[in-house]
Automatic annotation (TrEMBL):
It catalyses: 2 GTP = 3',3'-c-di-GMP + 2 diphosphate. This is diguanylate cyclase. It comes from the Bacteria. GO terms for cellular component: plasma membrane. InterPro entries: Diguanylate_Cyclase, GGDEF_dom, Nucleotide_cyclase, Rev_trsase/Diguanyl_cyclase. It comes from Luteibacter rhizovicinus DSM 16549. GO terms for molecular function: diguanylate cyclase activity. Pfam families: GGDEF.
Length: 466
């Protein structure tokens, strides 16, 4: 009996434990679903807020429901409410809320997969970093882009990344506004120049007319004098007494004299006007020449600035990309030998964090100067962005390029840096690769970058060839 009672108790205990486990499993599933739903609602609310009053109301209702629902049964109606909200949005909103598309996403969220989220964050951060590298090429934005780069380095969650993206968008919009302003100024200047050219054209037209008038006046005088001479001849032939003849000749001669004087006065006046206009025109042409020269100078300066990194004075990434396009052609068409090196200061963040951004900037400047001093032309040295430099070794075989790069890293490691009166060692790693005939600028850089990161992994303060 006792034994039987013991067996029965075991059975009930097992059943009880199984039931408990099932309840715990159910509870866990419910929590996962609940969490997934909460995130889905948050995403929906962020996407749809303000799109439709009905959807806003439904989403609010849903948000409240989610806050209070604590049992699976309480959750079920919320699923219906969610479906309703999606349908309302589909009806009212132009947003691409396609259940066939979004529901699997929702399922992905319901599934607890933090690793994928982390990946998504990293992909977003990398994409932003790429944009930042481009922004950093604009001289006016380089400093702000570096700050954002630092912020992005700290960002760990989607909100922080989204806020960095917003800052970046603001930055780019500011630059666009300033470019628009510069463009407007340039257009004003061009309008002024073209106005002055218009003045010149009008002057030339007036001059041509003036000369024509001069010719016409000369022809008039000629005709008048001929007419006077003809009348004089007629009167001379018909004259009967000498006094009358003398009086008539004198009268004709005075007339001719009168015509000549009037003609000369008009000519003098014409010449004075001409001289005056020529003088004014000369001034304008000189003014225009001065403006054109200063415009050319400022365009040249702008061009140089656009290709120069403001911090180190080295060619920037844009200049590097142009040079790479030339080298790519030389390697492909003429079989020129060239290598590319990517260099990166080791643990640069620690320098910034320990001694401040200004000290970091000073290190970048000195390393940049060392690179140009140690690798004179035809090597081409540029700041690629952040604490990364690139070198194009033209006409040099890979082994020689590696030797030069290694010597360079040794020189950098031996530089005497001081911060707060204490010596600070700065080292650099590098990756070298040969520019092959079937390479593009991008593939060769990618290989050099991989060699660089292999050097970092191998312990830093060294160069590797790939
Ligand atoms: N002072 C200064 N810092 C910059 C500039 N551009 C980028 N940085 C900083 O450079 C640091 C780069 O850090 P990481 O990418 O983590 O690399 P690292 O610390 O050098 O580490 P390893 O490359 O792995 O050796 C970040 O802290 C950036 O903020 C700049 O123009 N001036």
């Amino acid at each position: 009996m006792n034994e039987g009672g013991g067996v029965a108790q075991d059975v009930w205990e097992r059943k009880y434990h199984l039931a408990l486990e099932r309840m715990e499993r159910d509870e866990h599933d419910f929590r996962v679903t609940e969490e997934g739903l909460r995130r889905l609602v948050l995403r929906l609310a962020a996407l749809a807020r303000g799109q439709s009053e009905e959807a806003d109301r439904l989403l609010d209702h849903l948000g409240d429901g989610l806050r209070h629902a604590s049992t699976p049964d309480g959750l079920d109606p919320l699923l219906d409410a969610l479906t309703e909200a999606i349908t309302a949005l589909e009806r009212q909103s132009p947003l691409p809320i396609d259940p066939a598309h979004d529901v699997p996403q929702a399922a992905a969220i319901v599934d607890p997969i933090p690793a994928q989220e982390v990946d998504a964050c990293r992909v977003a951060t990398d994409a932003l970093r790429q944009v930042l590298l481009k922004v950093a090429m604009m001289p006016a934005l380089a400093g702000r882009a570096d700050d954002l780069h630092a912020v992005l380095g700290q960002a760990r969650d989607p909100e922080a990344i989204a806020s960095a993206a917003q800052d970046l968008a603001d930055l780019v919009n500011q630059e666009r506004a300033s470019l628009r302003h510069d463009m407007a100024q340039l257009q004003d200047l061009l309008a002024e120049v073209s106005g002055r050219l218009g003045d010149m054209t009008r002057y030339l037209v007036a001059e041509t007319e003036h000369v024509a008038t001069g010719d016409e006046q000369g022809r008039d005088l000629d005709a008048t004098v001929r007419e006077e001479m003809r009348l004089l001849a007629e009167q001379t032939l018909g004259a009967t007494d000498l006094d009358a003849l003398q009086a008539q000749v004198n009268a004709r001669l005075s007339m001719i004299d009168e015509h000549f004087r009037a003609f000369r006065d008009r000519e003098d006046e014409r010449l004075a006007t001409y001289r005056d206009r020529a003088e004014r025109m000369k001034d304008r042409v000189e003014e225009l020449e001065t403006q054109a020269t200063s415009l050319q100078d400022s365009l040249r300066r702008e061009h140089e600035l656009a290709l120069t990194d403001p911090l180190t004075g080295l060619p920037n990434r844009l200049a590097y990309e142009r040079r790479m396009a030339e080298i790519e052609q030389d390697v492909r068409d003429q079989g020129v030998v060239a290598c590319v090196g990517a260099f990166d200061i080791d643990h640069f963040k620690v320098i910034n964090d320990s001694f401040g951004h200004a000290a970091g900037d000073a290190v970048l400047r000195i390393v940049g100067q060392t690179l140009t001093r140690e690798l004179p032309a035809p090597a081409f040295v540029a700041r690629y962005g952040g604490e990364e430099f690139v070198v194009i070794f033209a006409g040099i075989a890979p082994d020689e390029a590696l030797a030069a790069a290694t010597a360079l890293c040794e020189t950098v490691a031996a530089l005497a840096f001081h911060a707060s009166q204490k010596p600070v060692t700065v080292t650099m790693s590098g990756g070298i690769t040969r520019f092959l005939a079937n390479d593009t600028a991008a593939t060769v850089f990618d290989r050099a970058d991989r060699a660089l990161y292999a050097a970092k992994r191998a312990g830093r303060n060294r160069c590797l060839l790939l």
